Amino acid sequence: MRIFVLLLALLASAFPAQAEAPNKWREDALAFPEVINAQYAYLDRLAGGRYQLTPKLQAEAESVKDDDSLLTFAERALFLLADHHAITDASFEQSWALVPSYSDIWIERKDGRYIATSVRQQSPAELGGFKTGATLITVGGQPISDAVDAFWADLGVKQITDDQAGYAARILAAGRRDRPREIVAQNVGEKSRNFVLPSLYTITRDTAPLRLFFDGKTATIKFNDSLGGSDTIAAFDEAMAQLRPEQQLVIDLRDTASGGNTTVARAIMGWFVQKPTSYQIHRSPAEEKQTGIARQWVEQVLPRATKYHKGKVTVLVGRWTGSMGEGLAIGMHSIGADVRGDRMAHLLGATDDLTLPNTGFVFKLPTERLYSVDGSPRERFVPKSGL
């Protein structure tokens, strides 16, 4: 017996157990807070000025083992920021819909009630009879307050603010991407009713970058969530060529929820300036943290050769004016346009694609703070009331 045991020991020493293979997915999940704390431009919104996982999400990070579990974890971990501008690059068919791009009811919690403070024009919600001012009662068959509490409890968060409540309610009302939504709500002065609404991911949209309309002396250019497409520049130039030099113009940005890029925005603004004009201020907190030296710069729009319109310009905005739509709105305001409508989406800053080191997993995070030229944060811009 002793000889057998000794033989086993000799074999074990000759053939040591293979070391456990590194788990690159787990390593990236555990690195998530470090990346956010290094790059996120709005840490001051968070308790203690730092991002940290709840114990529940920390345990989930520890158990990540493949692409799907990393994506599941990342989607949930980003919810802790309560920032609609922080999203994963990939998604599942059943992932929650992106707000505001694929939402049509803007919800805020006021005095314990969940109120639809805005409804997207020509959306399933509006066409189905959902009205601004409606009180939400249930979502997915669950009382809205319970559903919101459950959303946060599932992430390990117990106490929430009104801002966190509104954030979750907007996601819940936008629903899962692969299924219809069922919402019970009560419009002002009406009885409560059940709304069954399709996911906006199943809705066919107008594919033209924009539409031009004439109403007497006024021309209106309405964008179809197209501020990220290069064909939008040509379409805008073509529309502007049909206007008289001094014609009153309305630029409708109320359907620009998905944002875009500064090339398109500067091409539009270039029609309304005759010299280089400042329109937005950028600040990079990440660079300041890394180097100890603050960095801030002003972005300008330049005139476009042979393209200038001197007529009065009014810009219409609302809750589905998001990201670059908001940048274009404050830019037009800085060069003299009259900006009117509802508060915008208040998407924070400018986003970058961040890549986790071991898996190449990509997520988008606001890394720059953005300001109007007067130094006020872009997300606090308040348009004039009335259309």
The coarse silhouette is: globular
The helix-and-strand class reads alpha+beta
Percentage beta strand = 15-25%
Order of helices and strands: HHHHEEEHEEHHEEEEHEHEHEEHEEE
Q: Supply the CATH architecture of the domain at 210-350 and 366-380.
A: Alpha-Beta Complex
Residue ranges: pLDDT <50 for 5 or more in a row?
1-19
> What's the total helix number?
11
Q: How many E-type strands?
A: 16
Helix content: 25-40%
What is the alpha-carbon Rg in Å? 25 Å
* CA-CA gap between termini: 93 Å
State the major sheet.
Answer: 5 strands, antiparallel
Mean pLDDT: 93
**CATH topology-level name of the domain at 210-350 and 366-380:** 2-enoyl-CoA Hydratase, Chain A, domain 1
What is the CATH superfamily classification of the domain at 210-350 and 366-380?
Answer: 2-enoyl-CoA Hydratase, Chain A, domain 1
Q: Features of this protein?
A:
single chain, 387 residues, 2-enoyl-CoA Hydratase, Chain A, domain 1, five-stranded mixed β-sheet, disordered N terminus
What does this molecule look like?
By secondary structure, this protein is of the alpha+beta class. Among the domains are: 105-202, Pdz3 Domain (Roll), CATH 2.30.42.10; 210-350 and 366-380, 2-enoyl-CoA Hydratase, Chain A, domain 1 (Alpha-Beta Complex), CATH 3.90.226.10. It contains 11 helices and 16 strands. It has helices at 2-14, 24-39, 55-62, 67-79, 124-127, 144-153, 162-174, 231-240, 262-269, 285-291, 324-334; strands at residues 87-88, 105-110, 113-119, 135-139, 142-143, 181-186, 192-197, 210-215, 218-223, 248-252, 277-283, 296-301, 313-317, 338-341, 350-355, 362-371. Strands 1, 11, 12, 15 and 16 form a 5-stranded antiparallel beta sheet that branches. Strand 9, helix 8 and strand 10 form a beta-alpha-beta unit. Helix 6 crosses helix 7 (162-174). It is globular, with a radius of gyration of 25 Å.
